Amino acid sequence: IAWITCGCSQSTLSSSENEDLKLVQERTEMVRSQIAARGVRQSDVLEAMKSIPRHEFVPKFLQDSAYEDTPLPIGHGQTISQPYIVAFMTEALKLRPGDRVLEIGTGSGYQAAVLAKLCKEVYTIEIVEPLAQQASATLARLGFKNVHVKAGDGYKGWPEYAPFDAIMVTAAPDHIPEALTEQLGENGRLVIPVGKDSQNLILITKAGGKLSRETILPVRFVPMTGEAEKRSK
Fold this sequence. Notes:
alpha/beta, eight-stranded mixed beta sheet, two-stranded antiparallel sheet
C-alpha cells in the first residue's frame, strides 16, 4: 500500500479567469441537458458538477469530449464515469457538509473532486498505483485540500479512518465487501454497483446497526479488482 500526499496549491477551478469560456459553457450545458434534465435535483450537486473542470481529469487527446454524455478511457483499462452517473451517485449519498466520505476506485480523481465540494473529507483508494499518483497530482494542482489518496486494495476499505458517513464504490464487485459495510457509520449510506454480466446500483443504509438494501439503477462499471476478489473466484 502506498500513501500519496495530496499537497495543494491555490485552486484553479472554473472561477479562474484563464479558463476557456467555451469549456465553461460546455460544462453548464452538460449540467442542464444531461443531469438536471434527467432528474438530479440537489442544488449543491448541480453546482459542484458546474464547478469541477472535467476536462482536467481526462487525457489531453480526449479533452474535446470531456463534457459529452459518455464515460471515457483514462488508461490502465479504467474509465471516468458518465457525468450523469457521477451526479446520480453523488445525490444518492445525501451528503452533508460535515461528512467524511470513503471512495473506492479513485480513477482520474474526478468523482473525488465532486465529493470534496460537498463534504468535509474524502478518503479515496485506487488499486492501480499510476492512476492514484496521477489523480493525486491533478487534485493537488486544482487546489483540493480535503482529499486523501491511497494506492491499495479497496476491498479492505480504509479502517484507520473509519467509520465513514458515506461510502461510494465506482467499480463493480460481484458481492458487497463486508469490510465496507463494517466501516459504514450509524446512519451511513453506501452506494455501490454490484454484479458481473448484469449490474445494479445498490444503496445500503445503516440504522440501529442494521443494514437495509435498495436497488436503484441498472448500470455498467468496470470490474472491481483486489486480493479479496481474486480469492472469491
